[in-house]
């Protein structure tokens, strides 16, 4: 059995350093409770761009540009040491961390952002980086589209972990790509919440025969920092912007913990990896329940860089 922690606390929006400090504090707290896997929401560092659903496209371009510049300045560059405090905390607590980030591409454009999720091992190493394949609706004004190089399931001491972000979980082939890699724990960091999202988490657990962990950010208007550009125009202190709804689902679809609704705290659960293996005895969509003689599916996981340089 392994104890997991689903951390549903708000970030310090548009402040990478303060948000990472808050993440480390939650990791240390969860480690003190015996958790060996900690999961954070979609783009926790430095927060999900919720303003894009409130600003009319083509409307206040000056405000949009100012907010995006702040997001770009506070996004995570994996080529630098931006996540060092988190990787140090993982190693200190000997825990696996799944963390959503706004990632900046410093290698090629120096400007484009990606909605990414990283898996950090208990020694502090980066086990995987997955970039969201298809940003949803106005998200495409914030993030580029990722390739499939991070569409992987990785070994950790708590089990084999894979992750898809938010509405990627409605993409059947993306899910199947993870199912077909002997997945134990399926992580779905998200901005979605509510009954239909929880139903999706339960469906995936049944379909994939795996543990499923989903969480958005529990966020109120009062959590938006005072220096956020256009704060008074975009938010009110007494509104719930996102309910969170952290949930842990057993293989075959029964809820093990949660949903944690409008609660800015940590959801804990005990999971048994053997339960996933037993669940697939009757339904294994990538094994005895597949029909490779009728259906074929291939995934191109080669990185797709925009430029290839050949130097002497």
Topology:
Layout: E1 2-7, H1 16-32, E2 37-39, H2 61-73, H3 84-93, E3 96-104, E4 113-120, E5 126-131, E6 154-156, E7 159-163, H4 172-179, E8 185-189, H5 195-208, E9 211-215, E10 219-220, H6 231-234, E11 240-242, E12 244-249, E13 255-261, E14 266-271, H7 274-279
Parallel strand pairs: 1-2, 2-3, 7-8, 8-9
Antiparallel strand pairs: 1-14, 3-4, 4-5, 6-7, 9-12, 10-11, 12-13
Helix pairs in contact: 1-3
Provide structural commentary.
This protein has seven helices and 14 strands. The chain is an alpha/beta fold and 312 residues long. It has a single domain, classed as Carbon-nitrogen hydrolase (Nitrilase/N-carbamoyl-D-aminoacid amidohydrolase, 4-Layer Sandwich). It has a six-stranded mixed sheet. Strands 6-7-8-9-12-13 form a six-stranded mixed sheet, covered by helices on one side. Helix 1 (16-32) runs parallel beside helix 3. The radius of gyration is 19 Å and the shape is globular.
